[in-house]
Amino acid sequence: MVFGFLTLSIIVVAASFILELFHVKFLKFCHGIDLLFFAPWLFAFKFGFFNAMLLGFTIMAIHIVFNLHMAHFVLFALPALVIAIILGEMMGIAGFYISLALFMIASAVTTTMFGGFGPRFVIFLVVGTLFNIGLFSVYQNVL
């Protein structure tokens, strides 16, 4: 199991890095194309809570490095991330849509509490939801 975790972690971290580079170069206005929900949620039922949190913190760090101006909003995702990981571990693959919905709701609540809710955040919610549903469809059909 450790080899699987390490291999998949390297792939996810590399993919996160590539997605962030793509975002910075081409999609500065469009947020939500990232692995911050999907990868830790998936790792939660495959490798457990602590491994999923480790991966989540790593992805958060990558986001912060590439988006220093939005670092506080990335940190606001921590409660949503914990919820997704707990639900991923408890419900597994069957809880995807519930986990995604609660992740987005928790993200909206924390962002609103700190004055960050606006048009760009609505774009994040829409794009992020669609991107994660796409990832889930690929996961179900390919893996």
- Provide the β-strand percentage band: under 5%
Largest sheet: none
Distance between the termini: 17 Å
Please give the number of β-strands: 0
The 3D shape can be described as: globular
| Total of helices | 7
What descriptive keywords fit this protein?
143 residues; globular; mainly alpha; 80% helix
Task: Compile the SSE list and pairings.
Elements: H1 2-26, H2 38-47, H3 49-66, H4 71-76, H5 78-91, H6 96-113, H7 119-142
Helix pairs in contact: 1-3, 2-3, 2-5, 3-5, 5-6, 6-7
Describe what you observe in this structure.
The chain is mostly helical and 143 residues long. It is 80% helix and 0% strand. Helix 1 runs parallel beside helix 3, helix 2 runs antiparallel to helix 3 and helix 5 packs antiparallel against helix 6.
Quick rundown:
With 143 residues, the chain is an all-alpha fold.
